[in-house]
Amino acid sequence: MALNRSIPFVGFHTRIADRETVPKFIKLIEEGLVPLGVNNIILEFNPGYQYECFPQYSTGTFGKAEALMLREVCERAGIRIIPMFQCLSHQSNFNPEPWPLFKDHPEFLETPNIPAGAKWPQYYNHSWCASNDGVYDYVFPMIDELIDVFGCDVFHIGMDEVFDIADADCPRCAGKDPAELFLRTVNILHKHITSKGIEVMMWGDRLIKAEGSGYSVWDADAFGMYKCFDQIPKDIIINDWHYYDNHMGYPSLEQFHKGGFGYIPASYTNAGQAQGMWWKAMDAIYHGDRMRWGGQMLGFLCTQWDPMTPAIADALLGFLKGKEIENPPWLIKGVSEVIKAMMPLAAETPKGLLQKR
After folding, report:
1. Cα–Cα 20 to 30 A to 171, which of 15, 82, 165, 228?
2. Which domain holds residue 193?
3. Dihedrals phi, psi of 237, to nearest 5 degrees
4. For residues 266 and 252, what is the distance between their CA atoms, to the nearest angstrom?
5. How does the average pLDDT of the chain come out, rounded?
């Protein structure tokens, strides 16, 4: 089974790593997200999942038992779980210390010799080397384990905020084209996952040219990866995330629609911005229909980037129920406002807008 493109995608994204969070998260799902029509949850791992294939490279306590528990709850509620494994980028936690796999195998890193105290803008996150295929001996078994335990029909490969690619100091990548390296990585992952009958989802920011778009280097690309846009497999579902107002009207929406992708706008903590992007997506649908573009806007995704904890789950549920929360976790009120504003809009999207002529 694959994503049903005749039903609006009403999505929530979060990160999870600890088993003690599961009971509170289940309560949030059943009492907060289900009543608002959420039908897809993207669960981001690596290395927070307790992998049976490589337990030495896990840092969390969330494992198979917790996955099966969440799977049962979501299946009962009619919610699809989409596991997410960050690929290429985000191989460290916003600092120069890489995830355990890359501590053991620094040869897989694009930039292994980063000073320990480096901070943005000197440094952001590690990426794996797009020319060293040895990394897939570890990545593929981890991805396969997540696919199996969740029984998923869609898998998210991440691929956002890639800054370290074709680095001049990388002995394998120096002098290579960033677009070719990015596309090569996507194709390797796409081939592996689709061979199992699973659809692929990814963030779309590296496929957007930052210059002249009104976007930043965070939600668009300034390093040349965007040049592979026309070669990316069109069956990949794109999450087009933007968290700030765009004075040029979110041109990526039309770009993905015109390019023939199924795409899902995504926002974070600003309800006004999210609603503004939504109405621009409606414009893209209308324009695409009139121009016979091949793409399709599929719904909306609300994102939550701090790892889900019992305190975050409690606060988010409280806000969704209209309660005042004293000293809430950072940004959670904004996340709740986006969910309350956008889930009903996404759920009530006229089916006719989702159908191509």
Report:
1. 228
2. 9-354
3. -85, 125
4. 12
5. 95
> Which residue has tokens 């040029």?
248
**CB atoms inside a 10 Å sphere around CB 325:** 16
Amino acid symbol at 267: S
Report the C-alpha gap between 240 and 324 in whole angstroms: 31
pLDDT at res. 352: 45
Spell out the residues 6+ positions from residue 24 whose beta carbon is closer than 8 angstroms to its own. 310, 313, 314
- Do the domain assignments include residue 88? yes
Strand partners, 158: 87
Q: How far apart are CA 246 and CA 262, in angstroms?
A: 22
Angstrom distance (rounded) from CA 333 to CA 135: 39
Residue 226: which of 205, 242, 243 has the closest Cα?
205
Q: What is the DSSP letter of 228?
A: G
Give all strands (DSSP E) within the chain, no chain letters: 9-15, 40-44, 80-87, 154-158, 199-203, 237-241, 262-267, 296-297, 299-307
Residue pair 101/136 in contact (Cβ under 8 Å)? The answer is no
The answer to whether position 65 is within a domain reads yes
Rounded CA-CA distance 158/156 in Å is: 6
- Rounded to whole angstroms, the Cα distance separating 155 from 189 reads 10
Q: Is cis: bond before 141, omega within 30 of 0?
A: no
Residue 11: DSSP 8-state: E
Asked whether residue 1 is assigned to any structural domain, the reply reads: no
What CATH number has the domain bearing residue 332?
3.20.20.80
| Torsion sign, CA atoms 122, 125, 129, 134 | positive
User: Which regions of the chain are under pLDDT 50?
Assistant: 352, 357
Q: Number of folded domains in the chain? A: 1
Separation between Cα atoms, residue 271 and residue 265, nearest integer Å: 13
In degrees, rounded to 5, the angle at the alpha carbon of residue 8 between the alpha carbons of residues 26 and 283 is 130
| 3-state helix vs strand vs coil in the chain, percent to 5 | 40, 15, 40
Q: Residue 2 falls within a domain, yes or no? A: no
In this predicted model, what pLDDT tens digit does every residue of 147-186 receive, in sequence order? 999 999 999 999 999 999 999 999 999 999 999 999 999 9
